[in-house]
């Protein structure tokens, strides 16, 4: 099974009801050439590209930008999609009701995890006000995906999302599964070092490649870090991701296959690691 661990559903008709909202998201999130899409068409495209299931990552930028995807709507999309998606929740940490939103998403909606974007939501991951949110995630055994590293989005400040800033969370909450999206680009080695140290930390390959997925993967996994780091060291903690709709999966899957990794490593990255991150399968590699 191939799992896309980093998929943004912000332009699904079900979650982007008007052209005005679509235009706002294009401008605020730097998806300038993207338009609204039917959810089932999006599922079909993913399958054509070789992807079986996706983790949906919504956003909540309500305090500063007035835009968010309601977690209940994410749940409805997951149910409508007949097994094609896992749905994460999101919350703007600056909302006064942030904790209640997260608890409702886990307890009542049964969503699979939480997505946060420190660079866009303007918070430092190790701020004291964030720890009750992490405690809720650990209480409900739900993982967190953080945007990490550079972001294309206007107003997103990379300093908030530098990988090293997530270390205090991993150390304080050893049972909380944490993923640093985009391998923390451009701080690839920093991300890899954290994964090597903390078995509860993960990352994904939803990198910012420009016109060649293979060249960018080659840079990340053979130049920014040594080839052996991925194939022998952190292979249980890296998940395949596309950052769709910014990029689709076909070229990324091919690029991963071209790196010369052991087949077992490739299969872990394509699917098994995501299942363990989600809590769908038992983590056995530590035993």
Automatic annotation (TrEMBL):
One of its GO terms (molecular function) is hydrolase activity. It holds the Pfam family Amidohydro_2. Coiled coil: none annotated. Residues 73-279 form the Amidohydrolase-related domain. It comes from the Bacteria. Gene3D superfamilies: Metal-dependent hydrolases. InterPro entries: ACMSD (IPR032465), Amidohydro-rel (IPR006680), Metal_Hydrolase (IPR032466). Keywords: Lyase. This is Amidohydrolase.
């Amino acid at each position: 099974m191939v799992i896309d661990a980093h998929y943004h559903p912000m332009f699904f008709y079900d979650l982007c009801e008007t052209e005005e909202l679509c235009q706002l998201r294009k401008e605020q999130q730097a998806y300038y050439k993207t338009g609204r899409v039917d959810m089932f068409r999006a599922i079909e495209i993913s399958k054509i590209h070789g992807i079986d299931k996706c983790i949906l990552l919504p956003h909540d930028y309500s305090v500063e930008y007035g835009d968010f995807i309601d977690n209940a709507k994410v749940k409805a999309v997951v149910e409508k999609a007949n097994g094609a998606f896992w749905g994460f929740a999101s919350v703007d940490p600056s909302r006064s009701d942030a904790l209640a939103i997260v608890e409702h998403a886990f307890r009542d909606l049964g969503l699979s995890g939480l997505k946060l974007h420190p660079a866009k939501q303007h918070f430092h991951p190790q701020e004291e006000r964030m720890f009750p949110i992490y405690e809720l995630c650990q209480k409900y055994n739900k993982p967190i995906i953080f945007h990490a590293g550079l972001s294309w989005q206007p107003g997103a400040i990379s300093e908030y999302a530098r990988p090293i800033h997530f270390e205090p969370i991993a150390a304080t909450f050893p049972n909380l599964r944490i993923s640093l999206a985009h391998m923390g680009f451009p701080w690839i080695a920093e991300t890899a070092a954290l994964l090597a140290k903390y078995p509860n930390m993960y990352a994904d390959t939803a990198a910012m490649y420009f016109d060649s997925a293979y060249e960018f993967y080659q840079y990340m996994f053979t130049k920014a870090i040594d080839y052996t780091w991925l194939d022998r060291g952190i292979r249980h903690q890296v998940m395949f991701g596309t950052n769709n709709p910014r990029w689709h999966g076909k070229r990324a899957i091919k690029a991963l296959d071209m790196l010369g990794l052991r087949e077992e490593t490739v299969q872990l990255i394509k699917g098994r690691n995501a299942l363990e991150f989600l809590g769908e399968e038992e983590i056995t590699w530590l035993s």
